[in-house]
From TrEMBL:
<comment type="subunit">
    <text>Monomer. Interacts with DnaB.</text>
</comment>
<dbReference type="InterPro" id="IPR013264">
    <property type="entry name" value="DNAG_N"/>
</dbReference>
<dbReference type="GO" id="GO:0000428">
    <property type="term" value="C:DNA-directed RNA polymerase complex"/>
</dbReference>
<keyword id="KW-0808">Transferase</keyword>
<keyword id="KW-0804">Transcription</keyword>
<dbReference type="GO" id="GO:0003677">
    <property type="term" value="F:DNA binding"/>
</dbReference>
<dbReference type="InterPro" id="IPR006295">
    <property type="entry name" value="DNA_primase_DnaG"/>
</dbReference>
<dbReference type="GO" id="GO:1990077">
    <property type="term" value="C:primosome complex"/>
</dbReference>
<keyword id="KW-0238">DNA-binding</keyword>
<dbReference type="InterPro" id="IPR034151">
    <property type="entry name" value="TOPRIM_DnaG_bac"/>
</dbReference>
<feature type="domain" description="Toprim">
    <location>
        <begin position="310"/>
        <end position="389"/>
    </location>
</feature>
<dbReference type="Pfam" id="PF13155">
    <property type="entry name" value="Toprim_2"/>
</dbReference>
<keyword id="KW-0479">Metal-binding</keyword>
<comment type="function">
    <text>RNA polymerase that catalyzes the synthesis of short RNA molecules used as primers for DNA polymerase during DNA replication.</text>
</comment>
<dbReference type="InterPro" id="IPR037068">
    <property type="entry name" value="DNA_primase_core_N_sf"/>
</dbReference>
<dbReference type="InterPro" id="IPR006171">
    <property type="entry name" value="TOPRIM_dom"/>
</dbReference>
<dbReference type="Pfam" id="PF01807">
    <property type="entry name" value="Zn_ribbon_DnaG"/>
</dbReference>
Length: 652
């Protein structure tokens, strides 16, 4: 079905907007309405700007407090002068990530990650320098006045960027169809009946897809998107005969799904009327930019509120999050589907101290809540479970009893893990039957014998005794037997792990003397441009390891351009995260200015000595090869050179 001019449509808009829509419908060459939104998107999300003045960069850096910035991603606690939290760059259970407020630097004692506010954004969001500056400038209220172009993409391939651009275009198009067209009126009326205000619809970018096979496909083609890429992005499907493509979503209310940075990366489409022929919800397939195991719905909106409260509400569906937000709950997220991954929990653990799980009240909801609670507990999160009565879901409860009742009676009165577990096992039992009683006790004992405090055990034993009529003494005796059995199992498991550790030794190691010398010399070179010029003139190729040699070459180019030391700007200019890490580690080394020259001399001698020894080893090997080939002349020449090199060692 093709879109045709509709006089009813004209009556719905202002004259200016009507001209825009008429152009969209009739033009085969240019789409002003969509084009304007693409330009806005490119201005916000392009990845490389024209050269930014150094004073602007310094202004962005000085107006960004690193504690506030990192606090949006990591739950930080102040200890002494510094702030500590779980490192966002590697998995850990004990905080080793330090943020120095006075120095405006961060450092992880576990993985070695180091940097400032700008490099933190570059690392955490895999962004180039210009995009990190743009994000921080917007955050600080600084007007850059620069436009982006499409010449590169932040840490992602052009294909991924095109997929994000296409999803943004589609989201804007769907939103327009819902809010501004006759075709979207039915869907808009449905949402309004469900309690959605226009503000909520616009905040969450909710839209409507026309019941037409190719309307979005044609729009994407006119915008010159590669349709094979659009199929991989999940927006369209190839026809069976291979002659073209058609839209994946048709005749559905469209809910955009955003990544952690707020980019639209997928959709979930809901039909207006439930039928047996069609699924109620149709989600985008997993794509290069959309993975269910990594995406938490509403994370980009909720992150700040979670950090402020230290508490996050976890739902099993995105509609629950939207309903809760309408009830005033601003710190909730949802999984896409029924799977909660380690990645999800790692994200939540960085920004929250407490997790409240709220799933539907039906059997599937109880099972999901148990899985979520168990995984959260294993990950070290303080998980509590909010239970809904009957088989209600959060949206139904809020619609029936109101948002205040939901926040006070449900979210405000969560169960501890063991309290929930006891309710979970009891709900399917008839405790007037002996077999059910024995099964109930056995299941609860399995949980009590594990990671439960003595006080909680005592409380649960009292409750169990009251519910079953079995004496507390008998229950405690059985519990101790179960604890002993588990202790034996844990001991055997630890022995197995120790044996494996003997076979597979830890490959981590402390820096060698060579690496310490390279790091200390680099530290001096980062703070002294005159020293760099001297070293460059006297010692070509002074560094041993390839990473340091690469940094040395890039530092030469930096000094040619900037003329003065600035390790912040130098680190920010490096695209490779590992190189930035080495630079920041070197820059943060403690040095004694009184002994600077002695340190430099010692480092150079140490590195030169290593180079000579390495060259001697290479020449000994070459000499042996020459002898094997009966090339005694070459072997003699090498022997003489080896003697000279060994003599030069004594001069160092």
């Amino acid at each position: 079905m093709r879109i045709v001019y509709n006089s009813k449509l004209a009556l719905k808009f202002t004259f200016k907007f009507f001209l825009e829509i008429l152009e969209f419908i009739l033009s085969n060459k240019q789409d002003l309405w969509i084009q304007s939104r693409i330009q806005v998107y490119e201005k916000r999300n392009g990845d490389r700007m024209t050269k930014i003045p150094e004073e602007t960069i310094e202004q962005v850096r000085s107006k960004t407090d690193i504690v506030d910035l990192i606090g949006e991603y990591v739950q930080l606690t102040k200890r002494g002068r510094n702030w500590f939290g779980l490192c966002p760059f590697h998995g850990e259970s004990t905080p080793s990530f330090s943020v120095a407020e006075d120095k405006q630097l961060f450092h992880c004692f576990g993985c070695g990650a180091s940097g400032n506010a700008i490099t933190f954004v570059m690392d955490i969001e895999n962004s180039p320098f210009t995009e990190a500056i743009a994000k921080l400038a917007d955050r600080a209220g600084i007007e850059l006045g620069y436009t982006f172009n499409e010449s590169s993409k932040s840490g992602q391939s052009n294909e991924f960027q095109h997929m994000i651009e296409a999803h943004t275009l589609a989201a804007n198009f769907y939103s327009h169809l819902l809010l501004n067209t006759v075709e979207g009126e039915k869907a808009l009326h449905y949402l309004e009946q469900r309690g959605f205000s226009r503000d909520h619809i616009e905040k969450y970018g909710i839209g409507w897809s026309l019941d037409d096979r190719e309307v979005l496909t044609q729009l994407l083609q006119r915008k010159k998107f590669d349709m094979k890429e659009m199929e991989r992005a999940g927006l369209c499907i190839m026809k069976n005969d291979g002659t073209g493509y058609f839209d994946r979503f048709r005749g559905r209310i469209m809910f955009p799904l955003h990544d952690d940075n707020g980019n639209v990366v997928a959709f979930s489409g809901r039909i207006l009327t439930n039928t047996k022929e069609e699924a109620k919800y149709l989600n985008s397939p997993e794509t290069p930019i959309f993975e269910k195991s990594r995406l938490l719905y509403n994370f980009h909106h909720a992150r700040l509120n979670v950090r402020k409260t230290g508490k996050v509400i976890l739902f099993e569906g995105f509609m629950d999050t939207i309903s809760a937000e309408r009830a005033g709950v601003m710190n909730s997220v949802a999984v896409m589907g029924t799977s909660l991954s380690d990645t999800h929990l790692t994200k939540l653990k960085r920004i929250a101290n407490q997790l409240i799980i709220c799933c539907d009240g039906d059997n599937a909801g109880w099972e999901a809540a148990k899985r979520f609670a168990l995984l959260s507990s294993e990950k070290g999160l303080d998980a509590q479970i909010a239970l809904l009565p009957g088989k209600m879901d959060p949206d139904e409860y809020i619609s029936t009893y109101g948002g205040e009742a939901f926040t006070d009676k449900i979210l405000g009165n969560p169960h501890s893990y063991m309290s929930f577990i006891m309710a979970y096992y009891k709900r399917s039992k008839n405790l007037s039957h002996e077999n059910d009683v024995l099964q109930y006790i056995h299941e609860v004992m399995e949980e009590l014998a594990r990671k439960v405090s003595p006080i909680e055990r005592d409380l649960m034993i009292r409750q169990l005794s009251s519910e079953t009529g079995v004496s507390k003494e008998a229950l405690n005796e059985q519990l101790m037997k179960k604890v002993g059995t588990l202790a034996k199992q844990d001991k055997a498991k630890r022995q197995d792990e120790q044996e494996k550790q003997i076979v597979f030794k830890d490959t981590s190691r402390s820096p060698t003397g060579i690496e310490r010398a390279e790091r200390l010399l680099l530290s001096h070179l980062l703070s002294d441009g005159i020293l760099f010029d001297r070293i460059r003139d006297e010692n070509q190729g002074i560094f041993i390891h390839e990473e340091y040699t690469t940094i040395y070459v890039k530092l030469a180019g930096f000094y040619e351009q900037h003329k003065r030391p600035d390790f912040h700007r130098f680190a920010e200019s490096l695209e490779d995260r590992e190189l930035r890490k080495i630079v920041m580690e070197a820059a943060m080394l403690e040095r004694d200015p009184e002994f600077a020259e002695l340190e430099i001399t010692d480092c150079i001698h140490h590195l030169e000595k290593h180079q000579i020894l390495r060259r001697i080893d290479e020449m000994i090997h070459e000499s042996k090869e020459a002898e094997k080939m009966n090339d005694y002349t070459r072997a003699l020449e090498l022997a003489r050179e080896i003697i000279q090199l060994r003599k030069s060692l004594s001069a160092l």
